[in-house]
Amino acid sequence: MKLLASELRLRRTSLVVWVASVFALVAMIAAIYPQIRSDPSLDSLYANMSPAMQALLGGSSLTSPAGYLNTQVFAFFLPAVLLVFGLGRGSASIASEEEERTLDLLLAQPVPRWSAYLQKAAAVTIGITALTLATWVVLAALNAPVKFDLPAANLAAVCVQMGIFTLALSLVAQAIAAATGRRGYGLSAVAGYTFVSYVIYGMAATVTWLGDVRPLMLWRWYLLNDPLVSGFSWPGIGVLLGVCLAALAGGMFFFDRRDLRA
């Protein structure tokens, strides 16, 4: 596991900055909630929107604890932040070294390609886990002081599902980039899918035929059961973990069998 240790050591400063930034960002949003809760008229901003917009923005309530966290944190904003980290790290983990002509030096060592790929993926996983854990720590610490008063299991559920959702897309980006040798291919393909699937996920609330393709949208499996209200969605977690494993297997398969650019 020397490659994993080296990868974490080289990126530790960046990861610390990311963790601190997410920690501060979530804490700031949570700290504003007491002022929002005291103004019920703000609910009309969301209640008067179409079902599609409500789905895209995370619900129809702004003043309830679950509604506030969904609309301001979990429906789009924080997953997008984590995806900036995850897609960047995932797509660059193998392909950037190949583009910079340093990958051959790494693979000249007694490290099988599949092992190098897995250790790079493990580094991405650890980074996303750290950001997810930072989110949960802030919300758990402020749950009572700002009067969210949400069940601890539900806070854990939404953080876990967000983390696995982000990880799934990041590992897909890594797989595409490693299979093609182009960082931009993995980044652009998954970023494009993420945006389009988010729009389809929201529009399916009003456009009937889009409901048939909604199961193909990972946003649906992440937010399937409104985890802040209902807790863990085991079917959703199962689908997201399945995507993670498929991305790992596919990425290793194609990376192990293709000719690298000299």
What does this structure look like?
With 262 residues, the protein is mainly alpha-helical. It has one domain. Helices cover 76% and strands 0% of the residues. The protein has 13 helices and no strands. The longest helix is centred in the middle third of the chain and has 30 residues, at 113-142.
How is this structure best summarized?
This protein has 262 residues and is an all-alpha fold. The chain has 13 helices and no strands.
Secondary structure: elements and pairs:
Elements: H1 2-10, H2 12-37, H3 43-47, H4 51-57, H5 65-74, H6 77-99, H7 103-107, H8 113-142, H9 152-180, H10 183-203, H11 218-222, H12 227-230, H13 234-257
Helix pairs in contact: 1-8, 2-5, 2-8, 4-10, 6-8, 6-9, 6-10, 8-9, 8-13, 9-10, 9-13
Instruction: Compute the number of structural domains.
Output: 1
Overall mean pLDDT? 92
| Approximate shape | globular
| Gap between N and C termini | 26 Å
Could you say which structural class the secondary elements and strand pairing correspond to? mainly alpha
Largest sheet: none
Strand content: under 5%
- Specify the number of helices: 13
Task: Give start-end ranges of low-pLDDT stretches.
Answer: none
Round the Cα radius of gyration to an integer and report it. 20 Å
Number of DSSP-assigned strands: 0
Query: What is the N-to-C order of secondary-structure elements (H for helix, E for strand)?
Result: HHHHHHHHHHHHH
Query: What percent of residues adopt helix (DSSP H or I)?
Result: over 70%
